[in-house]
Amino acid sequence: MKDSSLFCFLLIFTTLLTTHKEEAGREGLSLYTPPPLVLDYHDGPLMTSSTGIPVYLLWYGVFSKSEKQTVADFVRSISPMNEQQLGLTPSVSMWWKTLTSYKDNRGMQVTSVVSIAGQHTDRSGSLGRNLNLLDVETLVENSVANAYFPADAAAVYVVVTAYNVNVQGFCLSSCGLHSFLQPSAKTKGKQLVYAWVGNPGTQCPGYCAWPFAVDPSIGPQDFKPLIAPNGVGADGMVINLATLLAGTATNPFNTGYYQGVATLPNEAATACLGSFGTGSYPGQPGQLLTNTLTKASFNAYGIHHRQFLLPALWDPTTQTCKTLT
């Protein structure tokens, strides 16, 4: 990718299940306690703007009205004032509040305010249905160059690709990514932060929409998929977008909070991979709430009485993975 770094993540359940079996087999045989998970701070900027984080949504391809509303409602649910209007807990803004514990070298914390500043739909798919990662960057650049969105260095530009759009690495090595563009004429001379997430509803729900689907190709699993509150594809996009926004806010330029190598780091949410509720372990999401009517599983309320399932976040104050339920 041109002058940018790739962050990608994949729910690899074969690894998760194998790890759990190995740990179970070693019970009682060793007194070794692994060191705590720590995301080191690398002295770079975080997303700390006092005016908040504007999110620009670029819908690439065809989406249902429900899918768009679900994803947009998740983003709108992050800000605390929407939690006050909602009056239900645990909430999406409570989930994001953990990220405000991340501070930069000036003592500035990740902002608590996130809002949708604009949306644009490229329904016809201007670059075709088979995209590489440079095409994703081009879509972001074009959205600014064509004045769909302004050039905003404090914002996150999110490209969301439809169920029938193939993106390089999707379902094979990643469920999405976040990165940044260096200043150029197309970006109006500004360094822009962006993310991409795909719709996994039909392409790979077992990988990128777990625990609402399982992948039969990895063999028998002692796990029955949970019922998705908003649909497998929509909720898969929410889980992955939540993961990406958490990583973007705390590590926008490869120099924030992460563990491991900068090009493939453990970040705020990926450090807690596969954990959604208390008591989670590899292959099991943990204790969740259940909708009494639909039997759908969730752990956070959003605006319009939406119910979402959001990943656990690494809490820098306790150095543990924090869940809402």
UniProtKB/TrEMBL annotation:
Keyword annotations: Secreted, Signal
Location of the protein in the cell: Secreted
Signal peptide: 1-24
Domain of life: Eukaryota
Main location class: secreted
Keyword Secreted: yes
Keyword Phosphoprotein: no
PANTHER family hit by this protein: PROTEIN EXORDIUM-LIKE 2, PROTEIN EXORDIUM-LIKE 5
Family: Belongs to the EXORDIUM family.
Protein name: Uncharacterized protein
Protein species of origin: Sphagnum troendelagicum
